[in-house]
């Protein structure tokens, strides 16, 4: 058993200034505010401006998380960026963030698990910290999905937004009660048989293009509810925790009806489920930390709370992580 645990030392988020409302979208494609609200819960989304890249959003979220942790870039020895919309095919967005933070030490790499990227990132960083390979890690979920949307496809272009959220995850002695419980358990899964239900139709090797997001929404929806509920149950059971004892659920923000469906399936009080779908829309790997930041800012999530993070995305990939904040 490791003598280290990973604790959440700080959190931060960043949303681009420009806001695109449902009414704005109804000017571009055959949709309506009523349809988008009723089917998804979304009312608006933030969109990066020209010249604003995923690394810019990631750097701002990272700076906010370091400030919250009372640390500087000198203290950080690992940067992991969960993204599906990197600035470039390579180098990794994490190394671009590393340079932007003025760091010439430590290691930086990207994780690609689409909307589940932050949960995969928590799992990877937690394992590295427990293995003694990092003391203070920046885990950032950052996306500019606006760059891979087909703005003529009403079935997908209304669903997504841009943004970034970050955790500083720090090593603490496993038996140090003063630092809080930290990451208690995490569970990740994937099933590549379903990759054609949610994918981007371009890439360097196959098409030499960036491509656009394609999704069979209603089929993804069914899998998401079932698989997220199962991931939460497995993650709780592995930790020996009853779902009823969890203070807050911080889900990936794809659709208000998915959040409600999972809560109903598990018998969870919907008041314990943090939702930012209405104002952020689906920001892929950024949605979980951004929702966490919003719920801390409004006084719901507090130090000492038991919090379940969960997500589902392209691949399919899915997972959950339970932490004592
Ligand atoms: O983040 C990764 C995970 N992603 C998700 O979890 C997304 C999961 N899927 C969903 O959230 C939902 O399936 C959607 C919001 C994408 C769609 O909702 P739905 O209730 O499953 O609708 P649908 O796809 O079955 O489409 C119903 C109707 C169709 O018209 P017909 O065939 O019934 O005449 C669509 O053409 O709604 C139509 N439609 C729209 N109408 C107005 C699809 N998009 C729009 C739109 N505005 N934007």
Radius of gyration (CA) equals 18 Å
- Uncertain runs: none
Q: What is the CATH top level name of the largest domain? A: Alpha Beta
**Per the principal axes of the C-alpha atoms, what is the gross shape?**
globular
Number of helices: 10
Can you tell me the CATH superfamily of the largest domain?
Answer: Thiolase/Chalcone synthase
Q: Your description of this structure?
A:
- By secondary structure, the chain is an alpha/beta fold.
- It has two domains: 4-178, Thiolase/Chalcone synthase (Peroxisomal Thiolase, Chain A, domain 1); 180-324, Thiolase/Chalcone synthase (Peroxisomal Thiolase, Chain A, domain 1).
- 33% of the residues lie in helices and 26% in strands.
- It has helices spanning 22-28, 33-40, 54-69, 93-100, 117-130, 154-157, 217-239, 256-266, 277-280, 287-297, and strands spanning 4-14, 19-21, 44-46, 78-82, 107-111, 136-144, 162-173, 182-190, 198-200, 213-215, 248-251, 306-313, 317-324.
- The strands form four sheets. It has a five-stranded mixed beta sheet with strand order 1-7-6-4-5, with helices on both faces.
- The two termini are 21 Å apart.
- The structure holds oxa(dethia)-CoA (UT7).
């Amino acid at each position: 058993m490791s003598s280290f645990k990973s604790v959440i030392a700080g959190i931060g988020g960043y949303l681009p200034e420009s806001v695109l409302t449902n009414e704005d979208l109804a000017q571009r494609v055959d949709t309506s505010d009523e349809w988008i609200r009723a089917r998804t819960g979304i009312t608006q989304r933030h969109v990066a401006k020209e010249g604003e890249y995923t690394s810019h959003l990631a750097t701002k979220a990272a700076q906010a998380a370091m400030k919250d942790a009372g640390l500087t870039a000198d203290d950080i020895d690992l940067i992991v960026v969960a993204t599906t919309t990197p600035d470039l095919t390579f180098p990794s967005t994490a190394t671009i963030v590393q340079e932007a933070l003025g760091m010439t030490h430590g290691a930086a790499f990207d994780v690609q698990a689409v909307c589940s990227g932050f949960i995969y990132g928590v799992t990877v960083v937690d394992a590295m910290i427990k293995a003694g390979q990092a003391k203070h890690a920046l885990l950032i979920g950052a996306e500019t999905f606006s760059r891979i949307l087909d703005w003529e496809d009403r079935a997908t272009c209304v669903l997504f937004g841009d943004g970034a959220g970050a955790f500083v995850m720090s090593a603490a002695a496993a038996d140090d009660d003063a630092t809080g419980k930290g990451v208690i358990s995490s569970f990740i899964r994937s099933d590549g048989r379903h990759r054609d239900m949610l994918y981007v139709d371009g890439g360097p090797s196959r098409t030499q293009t960036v491509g656009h997001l394609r999704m069979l929404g209603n089929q993804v929806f069914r899998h998401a509810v079932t698989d997220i509920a199962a991931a939460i149950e497995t993650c709780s059971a592995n930790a020996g925790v009853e779902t009823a004892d969890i203070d807050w659920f911080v889900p990936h923000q794809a659709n208000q009806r998915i959040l409600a469906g999972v809560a109903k399936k598990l018998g969870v009080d919907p008041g314990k489920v943090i939702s930012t779908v209405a104002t952020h829309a689906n920001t892929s790997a950024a949605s979980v930390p951004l929702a966490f930041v919003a719920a801390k800012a409004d006084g719901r999530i507090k130090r000492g709370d038991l919090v379940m993070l969960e997500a589902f995305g392209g691949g399919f990939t899915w997972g959950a992580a339970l932490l004592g904040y």
